[in-house]
Design brief:
This protein has 417 residues and is of the alpha/beta class. The chain has 16 helices and ten strands. The strands form three sheets. Strands 3-2-1-4-5 form a five-stranded parallel beta sheet. β1, α1 and β2 form a beta-alpha-beta unit.
């Protein structure tokens, strides 16, 4: 829409223009339009393409709201991109022998009027105009669109009516005006809330990081006597400090200096806190024990314990909870063994995708079956490098297994029986 109605005249005259977002329209805009309407010819320009938190209403809805608040605007609305584009439109229509009146409040006058006057008789990207004069027509600022939008954001119809200058239930485009504006503002309000939430999370994380840094620097600045005075405040902390004090790997994994843990443990020694902590030490769950066996195989597990296992592999990408994938892997193992035996193409190509995160453990008592497992992995879309060996592929007795039977040896009688 470039214009609803334009009248032509060759006689020298005055033309008034006003431009703005008018989103949403309110009685302050109506007052400015009425100032423009006092001139023989007047036009109200607004951008057709703007959208955002400050421009919630689409162009067609905005036009309906403008006409609802001030029906006399019909025939004077022009869809343009800027003050300059609106001035060029007027120049093309009326020519140079007119005075162009810029309708705005005093604050906006200092922004727009000098620039529009400077561009008079100058060619630019916007086009060209050369009026007899470009002057200001004063319009009082009665209210602001941001106050109307704020009332909507606060879900306050009463304030909306106050700042919009019309009842909240005024029908615009078939809907109550307040609800209509809120409908179009809601996505922007939700996006703003999410933005604030993310900012708060970042600031909280930053503050926590600074707090930990300050604590670390304070602990570093403490003397030995001060550190010795520190004791655990709970049985759980006492157990934790004792573990870190005696296990460098645990201390490193927990992110605590072993020297600090030793100071705590030294201060805890001889106290009921530590004594009760060790007495009440909770038993590890089976899952924790298995995790320790797995992790320590790559660290400090005793070799005789690992060697007691048969040839054992972990396949992290083949998850235990995915029963269907387990079934398909079983088929793949069978197909791989058949392919290996017959040297022929056999078996379906499988996909090894699953949303679960547990590990498949494959145990075989024949170390040579590693080739079969590799072939099965390829059939399900994995690589032989995806399995990790947990032991030496041999099954040996642990060194602490008793070699002596508690049952007494049978003595033979004199007859050799």
């Amino acid at each position: 829409m470039k214009a609803y109605h334009l009248t032509e005249s060759a006689e020298p005259q005055d033309v008034a223009i006003i431009f703005g977002r008018f989103n949403p329209p309110h009685f302050g805009h109506v007052h400015a339009w009425m100032v423009a309407a006092e001139f023989p010819h007047w036009y109200v320009g607004t951008n057709q393409d703007t959208a955002g938190p400050k421009d919630p209403l689409p162009f067609d809805i905005k036009i309906e709201a403008m006409k609802t608040l001030y029906p006399e605007i019909e025939g004077h609305l022009v869809g343009e991109q800027s003050w300059l584009a609106l001035a060029v439109m007027v120049y093309k229509k009326y020519g140079p022998n007119i005075t162009l009146h810029i309708v705005t409040d005093e604050n906006d006058k200092n922004i727009h009027l000098p620039y529009l006057q400077k561009q008079n008789a100058m060619e630019g990207p916007h086009g060209y105009y050369r009026f007899k004069d470009v002057v200001w027509a004063k319009a009082e600022r009665k209210t602001e669109a941001k106050l109307v939008r704020q009332a909507v954001a606060e879900n306050n119809p009463k304030n909306f009516a106050k700042y919009a200058g019309v009842p909240a239930d005024t029908v615009v485009a078939g809907h109550p005006y307040f609800q209509l504006v809120r409908h179009y503002m809601l996505p922007y309000m939700q996006a703003e809330e999410e933005k604030k939430r993310q900012k708060a999370e970042r600031e909280a994380a930053k503050a926590e990081k600074e707090r930990l840094k300050a604590e670390k620097q304070a602990a570093k600045a403490k003397g030995p006597a001060q550190e010795l005075a520190e004791r655990s405040v709970s049985q759980k902390q006492a157990r934790f400090m004792a573990a870190a004090a005696h296990d460098p790997a645990f201390a490193k994994k927990a992110g605590i200096k072993q020297s600090v843990a030793k100071e705590f443990n030294k201060a805890d020694t001889g106290t009921k806190q530590l004594s009760n902590a060790m007495k009440n030490k909770p038993k590890k769950r089976l899952s924790e024990e298995l995790e320790i066996v797995y992790e320590n195989r790559h660290g400090s597990i005793q070799s005789d314990v690992a060697d007691a296992l048969p040839a054992t592999y972990v396949i992290p990408k083949l998850q235990n909870q995915d029963a269907y994938n387990q079934y398909r892997f079983g088929l793949a193992v069978a197909a791989a063994r058949g392919e290996k035996a017959r040297k022929t193409e056999h078996g379906e190509r499988f996909e090894g995708v699953s949303p679960w995160g547990e590990n498949e453990i494959v145990v075989t008592f024949d170390p040579n079956e590693a080739e079969t497992i590799d072939a099965a992995l390829k059939l399900v879309g994995l690589s032989p490098s995806d399995k990790k060996s947990l032991n030496s592929k041999e099954s040996l007795e642990s060194k602490d297994v008793s070699k002596f039977s508690p049952v007494a040896k049978i003595k033979k009688n004199k007859y050799g029986v």
